[in-house]
Batch of 2 targets.
Target 1
Amino acid sequence: MAWKSRAAVYVEKDVLEFQEITIEDLKPDEVLLKVLLCGVCGTDLHLFHGEVPLAKPPVVLGHEIVAEVVELGDAVEDLKPGQRVAVDPVVPCGHCEFCQSGRPNLCPNMKNMGYHMTGGYTQYTVASRDRLFPLGNDMPLKAGALVEPLACVVRGYERLQPLPGSKVLILGAGPIGLLWNQMLQGVEAAEITQVDVVPERAEMAGELGARHAL
Ligand SMILES: [Zn+2]
Ligand SMILES: [Zn+2]
């Protein structure tokens, strides 16, 4: 059965409009999700202001989604209604050379929830099972909404492979910079310097453990 959902739809540059959207019947590998919380990424602001041509209105933005499973497609057997999940909003094609070589983030045919497909600024949204990661139902919702940005930081961290005693400079102390700050706290004897033009952000970098915060 098709579902109705109230959504904040990006209809044109600088305009979000509350609308009722229709969610079509689930495909076998899809899951209907009730959005519990959706973060506002810096990218969402760029999309909203029409600065990035990736999102073609009308579309529902939002890709830092924590949600509850409502209904399962026929082929989904390992999730249950009521289960809390984080969503990987990137939907690679699975067939190109990048997807086949384990680098789906470079897929030229990639689609994104919240750019090309309905994202998280809505009561209900849909994702395929392979984009969902079960969370403990006791995980705070705000932490759940940080899973997607944190995953970006973890990927960068794995590539950086910081050594004990590393001296690290983090440019910017917004949410991503502060997640980097916290990741790098785990590196033995790392010396972290973090800079930001906003004094409150630099201050928070210091509170979170940067040795030099400017
Ligand atoms: Zn983002
Ligand atoms: Zn691909």
Note: The chain has a mean pLDDT of 94.
Target 2
Amino acid sequence: MHKKIALLLTLTALALALAACGGNNDNNAEPSGSAGASSPAAETAASQEIVINATTWEFDKAEYAIPKDTPVKLTLNNTKGAHGIEIEGQDIEIRGNKSEVVTLPAGTYEIRCSIMCGTGHKQMVSKLVVS
Ligand SMILES: [Cu+2]
């Protein structure tokens, strides 16, 4: 009789251990879900979006303006060719069709193509006016 109870307890303990494992798996799935939810939150923090259209071999505007000390979403859109942008004096680079939320102090910055894209690469320069 005691042996049966001991066996039952062992089985119960095993079942609990398995259930705990299942619970852990569920918990592992959750952080990736919430991490995915955090990037749209970062995007909504940007007050506005500036789209920089890049083609061969120029950006669509000679000058882009954004407010100072304010998160702004910079989106690079390659309409022709493969280009990137880097902002002078800042550790900011966007390559391909991507976005980044940036916050900059007042100033005039040079935006350059950051990908060697061909003969006109060096003339791909525009201004970013932050004020
Ligand atoms: Cu280039």
Note: Residues 48-130 form a domain with the Immunoglobulin-like fold (CATH 2.60.40.420).
